[in-house]
Amino acid sequence: MTQLLAITGTIAAIATAIVPQQGSVGIVRVSGSEAIAIAQTLFYAPGKQVWESHRILYGYIRHPQTRQIVDEALLLLMKAPRSYTREDVVEFHCHGGIIAVQQVLQLCLESGARLAQPGEFTLRAFLNGRLDLTQAESIADLVGARSPQAAQTALAGLQGKLAHPIRQLRANCLDILAEIEARIDFEEDLPPLDDKAIISDIENIAAEISQLLATKDKGELLRTGLKVAIVGRPNVGKSSLLNAWSQSDRAIVTDLPGTTRDVVESQLVVGGIPVQVLDTAGIRETSDQVEKIGVERSRQAANTADLVLFTIDAATGWTTGDQEIYEQVKHRPLILVMNKIDLVDKQLITSLEYPENITQIVHTAAAQKQGIDSLETAILEIVQTGKVKAADMDLAINQRQAAALTQAKISLEQVQATITQQLPLDFWTIDLRGAIQALGEITGEEVTESVLDRIFSRFCIGK
């Protein structure tokens, strides 16, 4: 059953994360025409409390037949259209954990509600005009945000900062289409079209679309994060670098080479970008079977990372072992980290040799927690070089939105080609309508069931 066909009836779901023996509050959300009736069946509010919209009631959730108390709770009532879904919505605020919320949800289902599908509350908000598609997707991004910058970008989308320019571009295309169709229907009564003016207007629209498309990589970076692998010979200070960077003791640090036997992971935020840092085992030839597995995993991590921090020991300089590892990772975006500079005379640091094609070099003394700021600056410079803005952007499109914008741009280019070829006006409208449809798919003015299924299936149940 598709999402569009599944929006009938009253739905219920647990709207908070379930944490065994730790959650203090659990919320069961119910939306639909029977929501209030279900609440009145299950919830007992002692005294003279008034069942009014946007009012919190205190009481007990009871089994409708046995009258056995299931939980002491609060009830929040939100009547349509002043609710998230623009339907009648009730929320049971129960004690957290597993048992209480599961029991309350089961009672709601037995009282006539059905279990909500993933994202169905937000789907109803969209179908009832509460949100457009860009805002709905921003809600998913906000829930899954892994950094303050990602959260701010999602909030900007939720506030309509993406929808507004898209709607304006679509309106501009509709204005051009109206001009063309007017000439088709009333050619004798109107002056001829100014081809150059039409092409200029289309070029301006296409340029604005290109500006929006430029935010795609930044959006992907904020959503998925940057995967960084710390790679190098054993005992060059990779684990010390991870510990100093993450300000924790995630990795074991000793003077013995080969201490790290597996990939150690840490989650950081650099310049608003989520960063997954992988401290890998020292890469070298070894007969130790366990270490050999760790070395192979290190190679795999380096080959799948977005960025490699190739770490060497400044005290020993560039060695044959470093060169062998470099040959394996030089095809990846790379920063050379010269570690242990506190053990080297400052005059010798500048004379250390390394391959000429390495352009990003950072000096660190990880054991002394020195050079971390320079390392983060270098990482952001790498990001900037890739034309991915790390901060100071109000919005960022996702893959679906980028695909629709790309289609709109292609359609507009086709319109320009049609005009240049001096084809009849009817041909102009074909691709112009295609651009209008593609832009409408972004905000939801024009949308199919398959698009909705794809978007809302990514949501969790209860949102």
From TrEMBL:
The primary site where this protein sits is: cytoplasm
Location(s) in or outside the cell: Cytoplasm
Which Gene3D superfamilies did the record assign? P-loop containing nucleotide triphosphate hydrolases (3.40.50.300), Probable tRNA modification gtpase trme, domain 1 (3.30.1360.120), tRNA modification GTPase MnmE domain 2 (1.20.120.430)
**HAMAP family named in the record:** GTPase_MnmE (MF_00379)
PANTHER family registered for this protein in UniProt: TRNA MODIFICATION GTPASE GTPBP3, TRNA MODIFICATION GTPASE GTPBP3, MITOCHONDRIAL
Primary role: Exhibits a very high intrinsic GTPase hydrolysis rate. Involved in the addition of a carboxymethylaminomethyl (cmnm) group at the wobble position (U34) of certain tRNAs, forming tRNA-cmnm(5)s(2)U34.
UniProt protein name: tRNA modification GTPase MnmE
Query: Gene behind this chain?
Result: mnmE
